[in-house]
């Protein structure tokens, strides 16, 4: 009888673990995060209303694993204040950048003819593996512990157009529309304020002349 009872206990434990695993963790995740935080702000800073209108983000992946981000934002409100006051403009940009998926470094901004341009780097946004470069911010990280809830929130564009560019001579493998050679493009759906990015696999830049690019892409994702 003892072996039979042990089997029942094990079976009950397996059922309990399966039930825990089946509980969706999405409710405990962080809020959705825009790819471009500075592309869609609408706020008041130091008593001045500022708001973005149409915008575009371009991210260039470099072969050494660093990335360069350029956001171009037409300003609906606050253009004059942002153009005339450098410290005010930096305060607006710093606040808006806090929502981005990027970890911005060396942030520079300027306003010209009502358009805000923000340039920055993120040296942690890509990883090099097996001669390929994996761009990681578009897929949210989950919790490290088994069956734990939480993790990063889903991604949405936060801009009208997002272009991801591979290094020269590289091809990009991943979701999104195919643009020019070595590009992936995502565009905001008409009338949709938060267009989901819907990327399940990290985009990977692979040397166009390398052998077995599909295998390199799969292995690079596995290692990232």
TrEMBL record:
Superkingdom of the source species: Archaea
The name this protein goes by in its record? Uncharacterized protein
Organism field: Halolamina pelagica
